[in-house]
């Protein structure tokens, strides 16, 4: 059922920039049938409204969270911790169930093209329907749940099932592949989008189309010890100092995620406003976002930001990857 052709686009892009796309990942017939099954499950009330925990500063000064629903976005987890979930959706969706049952074929194809991923398990899978009227997702990384001890999530795969999508409908997944330019990817029918789960910041732009925006989200476990995306090698096309900074950050995922809070501060704030109704909780979340951004920025050496602001975004990628150097954050962050 999976028909992914990994020769469509340069395979190096996944390792160098952290994302990759291809067309025709499933047949037109399969896409149509799965879409109708997901919409039928939604109509039957089997999908629940999506929510996010907004991080806020509590009255006692601590950091806490409040759960808020994302308007017009509905979903159901079909696989959790590697096991089948939500049996009612799977029982009434035989083509969808068969597609998920054959995820091993997809993993095999991806492992043949990117053997360093060593994908060995589908950790989680969910279906989503965005009913329009501006439904969106804020900027985030696809980190595994804090309760998922020992999780080895490395790769996110999005399969879009939207034959009626048209330019202007919105709903693009916007990839922010630091240090490269932002890339909005339209949710076109049968399109597969891959990216690094834990190091690729992304958001979903507001969707206003007349027909539901449907997608399947898959999260795979694999080899977590290999930096993904890969540390950039020295290259004449890039400023050497900027390249070194990026190379070091990519070997320290937690610091890279913290750095993105500074680099994409305004984009992240905009995405929160797009995804949630105005409220005191949203205002509190925005206030904490900028508070934490300033705290991270205070640790970054001023020359680091000066170099990057002068040179980024990089416009093209190197074609040859070399062995990475030992990560050394000295000089990038102050006070570490």
From TrEMBL:
Pfam families recorded for this chain?
2OG-FeII_Oxy_3
Gene Ontology BP annotations: cellular response to hypoxia
Organism expressing this protein natively: Polarella glacialis
Q: Which cofactor does it need?
A: L-ascorbate
Identification of the protein by name: Fe2OG dioxygenase domain-containing protein
Mind listing the GO molecular function terms for this protein? ferrous iron binding; L-ascorbic acid binding; peptidyl-proline dioxygenase activity
Q: Is Oxidoreductase one of the keywords?
A: yes
Locate the Fe2OG dioxygenase domain: which residues? Answer: 121-222
Sorted alphabetically, which PROSITE patterns does this protein's record hold?
FE2OG_OXY
| InterPro entries associated with the record | HIF_prolyl_hydroxylases, Oxoglu/Fe-dep_dioxygenase_dom, Pro_4_hyd_alph, Pro_4_hyd_alph_FE2OG_OXY
Stored SMART domains:
P4Hc (SM00702)
Classification from the root reads: Eukaryota, Sar, Alveolata, Dinophyceae, Suessiales
- The answer on whether this UniProt entry bears the keyword Protein biosynthesis reads no
Q: Which UniProt keywords apply?
A: Dioxygenase, Iron, Metal-binding, Oxidoreductase, Vitamin C
């Amino acid at each position: 059922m999976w028909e992914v052709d990994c020769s469509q686009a340069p395979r190096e892009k996944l390792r160098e920039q952290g994302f990759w796309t291809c067309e025709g990942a499933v047949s037109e017939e399969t896409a149509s049938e799965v879409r109708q099954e997901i919409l039928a499950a939604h109509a039957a009330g089997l999908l629940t409204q999506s929510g996010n925990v907004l991080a806020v500063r509590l009255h006692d000064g601590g950091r806490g969270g409040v759960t808020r629903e994302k308007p017009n976005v509905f979903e159901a987890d079909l696989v959790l911790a590697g096991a089948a979930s939500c049996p009612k959706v799977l029982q009434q969706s035989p083509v969808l169930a068969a597609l998920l049952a054959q995820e091993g074929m997809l993993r095999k194809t991806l492992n043949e093209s990117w053997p360093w991923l060593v994908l060995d398990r589908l950790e989680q899978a969910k279906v989503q329907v965005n009913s329009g009227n501006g439904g969106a997702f804020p900027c985030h990384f696809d980190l595994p749940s804090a309760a998922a001890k020992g999780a080895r999530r490395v790769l996110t795969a999005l399969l879009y099932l939207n034959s009626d999508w048209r330019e202007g409908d919105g709903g693009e997944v916007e990839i922010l592949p630091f240090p490269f330019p932002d890339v909005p990817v339209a949710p076109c029918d049968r399109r597969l989008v891959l990216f690094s789960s834990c190091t690729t910041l992304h958001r979903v732009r507001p969707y206003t189309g007349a027909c539901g925006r449907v997608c399947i989200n898959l999260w795979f476990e694999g080899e977590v010890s290999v930096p993904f995306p890969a540390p950039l090698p020295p290259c004449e096309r890039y400023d050497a100092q900027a390249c070194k900074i990026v190379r070091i950050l990519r070997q320290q995922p937690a610091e890279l995620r913290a750095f993105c809070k500074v680099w994409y501060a305004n984009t992240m704030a905009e995405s929160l406003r797009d995804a949630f109704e105005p409220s005191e909780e949203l205002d509190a979340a925005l206030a904490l976002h900028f508070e934490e951004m300033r705290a991270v920025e205070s640790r970054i050496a001023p020359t680091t930001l000066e170099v990057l602001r002068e040179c980024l975004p990089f416009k093209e990628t190197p074609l040859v990857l070399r062995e990475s150097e030992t990560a050394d954050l000295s000089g990038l962050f102050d006070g570490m």
